[in-house]
Amino acid sequence: MIPTETIDTLEQCWRSISELASGFSETQWKTATDLPGWSVQDNLSHLIGIERMLQGLATTSHRAAATEYVRNPIGEMNENEVDSRRSLTGSEVLQEWNQLVDTRLATLRTADDDYFQQPAMTPTGPGTLADFLHIRVLDCWLHEQDMRRATDRPGNLAGPAAELTVDRLIRTLPIVVGKRAGTPEGGAVAIDITGGVDRHLFCEVQNGRAALVAASTSAPLATIGLSTEAFVVLAAGRRTHDRVLATVAGDSELAQRVLGQLNMMI
Minimal CB count within 10 Å: which of 2, 38, 75, 112? Predict the structure, then answer.
C-alpha cells in the first residue's frame, strides 16, 4: 500500500523547515544546537545527506576529522555529509535542500506499491521503505525543532509531524517507567503532555511488566506534567531533566527517576 499519509506528513515537515530556514541570517545558520558539535546548518546538512541516500544519489567522498561525539559508523557517515558542507553558506545549503525536497516528493508521489515495499534496514531494525519513511518524519521533525530552539523560533509543535513523533516516542515509555525507573508491582505513573500534542498517559506495572493502559487500576504513584517541547527534548536525549521544566505530584523520587531515564533515542 502506498503510504500517502506519511508522504503528506513528510511534505508538511519539509516545507516547514524550508519556510523556517528562509529567514535565517548567516549568524543564525552557524548557531550551535543541542546536538554536540552541530550548528543549525549542520542539522540541515544531515537531513540532506540521508535524503540523498534514499534518493539513490551519490554520497560524499569527503572524510571528516575524528571527533569525540562520533562513536559509530552511522555517526561517521552523518558527520562526513555534515562536514562536507561546512564551507558553504547557509543559503547555499538551503538551496540544495529545497531542490532535493522537490526531487524526493516527485519520486514519492509517482512511486508504486512495490517501491514502498522494498526491504530496508531502518533505525529500529529490518522493515520496508514505507517503515523507513515513517521514521524519517520523526527524524526530520526533531531536527526542525533543534533548529527552532537554537534560533528561538518556536513553531510546528502541533499537527501531523509533531503527533507522529510524540506517539512514536511514547511507545517506549513502558521501558522507562518499568525497567529503568523501577516502578513497583501494581504501581502506575501518569504523564500529562500539553501545549502542542496533548496526551494523557498512564503506564502501569502488572505481572512484572509495565504497559500503557487506558486508566490505572489505582491512583498513580506519581504524576508528571510536561509541555510537548519538554517531553520531546527529554525523550530525544537533547537535554538532561535538570534543564527541563516539569511539574511533579506524588512520589517525587519515582517521578525524578522517570524524568532522568526518559531518553529513548539511540
Answer: 112
